[in-house]
Structure formats: C-alpha cells, structure tokens
Amino acid sequence: MTDKTLTSPTAPFSHNTPQTVGECIQYGAQQFEQAELFFGHGTDNAEDESFWLTFYALGLPFEADTSVLEQEITEAEWHQVNALFVRRVTERIPAAYITGEAWFCGYPFTVNQHVLVPRSPIAELILQQYQPWLSSSADQPLRILDMCTGCGCIGIATALHMPEALVDVSDISTEALLVAQDNIQRHKLQDRVTAIQSDVFSGLPNSTYDLIVTNPPYVDKADIDSMPAEYQAEPAIALGSGDDGLDITRRLLKEAASYLNGNGVMIVEVGNSWENVEEAFPNVPFMWLGFESGGHGVFVITKQELTDYQAEFV
Asked: What is the pLDDT averaged over residues 202-215?
C-alpha cells in the first residue's frame, strides 16, 4: 500500500476503527446510506462508491483479488480512507472530483470540476467502432469530431479504439480544454487528437468530418432546478441549455451538414430531453438508439437528412 497524505475536515463520525480493507468499505457504505448521498457518476450504489474511494486512498489496484478485503490496515491508512469519506459526505461532490480520475470505455481520465464526470452511453458505440454508421476508406483516415468534449473522453476513447482515425475534440471552455489536453498527453495521442476551442462550429477550421459525435449541454430548466447536489457540483455551462434543453442541439442540427462529408453522420446525446426533440421537430425521422448497458436519448442523423430537413431546423 502507498502512504499518501490526504487532507480533509475532521471526521465527524463516531465509530470503531475498521481493521481491514473490507471493513473500511462496509463503514463507508453505511455512512453514505445514512447521509442519503446520490450516486450516478461512475457508481450507482453506496458500496461501490465506498469501494472506489477506499481502494484509491490505499493505492490498491481495482482488479485486485478479493482476498485483499481481509488485508489489515494501519491507523494512518484508516485516516487516509476516512478523509475521503468525510469529503464525500460533507461536500456532496462526485467521488471522481475527490480522486481526480474517472474511467470511461476501459480507460482512466483526469477530471476536475471544470468538466463533467464521464458517463455517456456513447461508450457502447465507441466499443462497436460506431458500426454500422461509419465506414472506413482505404485511401484516407477517418476524420472524427467530438464536440462539447469536456475532459476529451469520447474523442480520446474513439482514437484509442480506432487507430486509423484522426480526431478533433472541441469545447467552448478553455478550462475544459486544458483537462482534455492533459488526457490527450496522458494517452500519448498528440499525433492523432487535436484540441480546439470553439463555440459549437464557429471556431473550427475549414474541414469536414465522417462523424460528428457530441454530448452537448441538454438539461432543461425543470431538471436543472431539481438536480441533486452531486450534479449541481458539475459545471453549469456543460449541463443547461435553455428552457427546453435544446439551445445547443438546435445549432447542431442547423449547422452540422456543412461540416460533414457526403456520407457523414452525426450522433447526438440529449438524454431526458429526447421528448423535447421530438416535440420541436415532429417531421424529422430521428433514429433513436438502444443500449445494452443502459442509457437513452441518443440519436443518429445523416448529412442527407440534415440537408433534407434544413427548413425544419432553420
């Protein structure tokens, strides 16, 4: 185990000090349940959240054998673990902001409070290399744009799973792009992934893509007002998009055709705002995708459809 030095508020809990890794996890889960924390940023329950923070604090590999749960810990190690538990309860922020790391598509990504915590169902499409909507050419590499990239996870994971692709990742936030650039370097993709500051399409170079994939801000005002504290901790600019959540999506639909190649497609995640999309554009035949691993509100639309229904979007 490592001997990290972590700081946090003084622990407010009364307890018998856990003696093993497993007891740490059980203790944390109990505290999280009592505090009625909300989960949804990489875990969906108190025990998994406690496991994540415990293993991070102790420097244990997440793939360790279950026998590690019986491993005894020192008093100093317990204080390291409990410091993270206390932060999670008192600050009500996603665990990924405490550890500075989140996983997406099987890869670790640096995160902070300038970016959303990765959790998009688009990960399933990446693992499938966006088939059957994307076809490669022997003559030239695929050109892919990850718009509203945040920490860069969608674009970077795409590049890692598709070594023949050249990927641009764009975001309006300079702070988010700094995180994305860190992750590009972390995964040694400087030769194939480029970070670009852009307000939707306005800052992009004069180029076209085979695929535009985006998880833009899409939360409507009603959902913004009712979100748990853990979601309120994420950057507002990456969440809300007008009263119906579609301000950015409207711009994407209106402008994307000019940035797609002839057979190009755009994949857009709009989450719970999918009903608002259907209501706003009742004549457009959006293709809504299903996901074996869970998730909803992702549609595919072709360049041809964007062109054919341009009057609807304008």
From this structure: 94
